[in-house]
Specification:
This protein has nine helices and no strands. It is mainly α. It folds into two domains: 84 residues, Rna Polymerase Sigma Factor, Chain: A; 83 residues, Winged helix-like DNA-binding domain superfamily/Winged helix DNA-binding domain (Arc Repressor Mutant, subunit A). The longest helix has 25 residues. The radius of gyration is 18 Å and the shape is elongated. About 8% of the residues have low confidence. Belongs to the sigma-70 factor family. ECF subfamily. InterPro entries: RNA_pol_sigma-70-like, RNA_pol_sigma-70_dom, RNA_pol_sigma70_r2, RNA_pol_sigma70_r4_t2, RNA_pol_sigma_r2, RNA_pol_sigma_r3/r4-like, WH-like_DNA-bd_sf. Keywords: DNA-binding, Sigma factor, Transcription, Transcription regulation.
Length: 185
């Protein structure tokens, strides 16, 4: 039975019980990979970034206070790793696999229309790639990672209202790009 909360585990890691990091890794490595993959579009780079996030958790464990949610602190570190990676790689090309992301953004397509679905997903993939990094990030955090607006606000160091506005604007931008692409084909 695994009754320890994420905060309690991280506080133990902070106190020197580094073996507890394994439990946190088991709980969050897939979630982090999903976030980083949808932001970078590259599975190999995303795997490396996940490893870097957990390395930084160990390196900067002294900064974890336990006052806020562990998950918020983790995503803050993940964003920094992502920014560092983008700066190091000088913006490599994005490629998005949005099959399971599509339903969370705005309704799925009937499963019996697989060709139509593939075409729609390709358009959605192109539309996501055209969004700014900031717009794509709030959509991934809110729709794919299913974080609450208050959690996103803490990660982005802004207000919940600002997050709501950013998500709304990003959804409108995505919709505009998507519909324009759909009419062009």
């Amino acid at each position: 039975m695994n009754a320890l909360t994420d905060n309690a585990l991280m506080l133990r890691v902070k106190a020197g019980d580094l073996n507890r990091m394994g439990l946190l890794f088991e709980r969050y490595h897939r979630e982090l990979f999903g976030f980083l993959y949808h932001m970078s579009g590259r599975p190999d780079v995303s795997e490396d970034m996940v490893q870097t996030v957990f390395y930084r958790m160990l390196k900067y464990r002294h900064t974890f206070t336990g006052n806020g949610a562990f998950r918020t602190w983790m995503y803050h570190l993940a964003r920094n790793v992502l920014i560092d990676t983008v700066q190091q790689n000088k913006r490599s090309a994005h490629h998005y696999d949005v099959a399971d992301f599509a339903d969370r953004i705005g309704g799925g397509l009937p499963a019996d229309e697989s060709l139509h679905r593939e075409q729609e997903l390709a358009l959605l993939r192109q539309a996501l790639a055209k969004l700014s990094d900031e717009q794509r990030e709030v959509l991934v955090l809110s729709r794919y990672q299913e974080l609450k607006y208050d959690e996103i606000a803490r990660i982005l160091d802004t207000t919940e209202g600002a997050v709501k506005v950013r998500v709304h604007r990003a959804m409108n931008a995505l919709k505009t790009i998507y519909l324009t692409s759909e009419h062009e084909r």
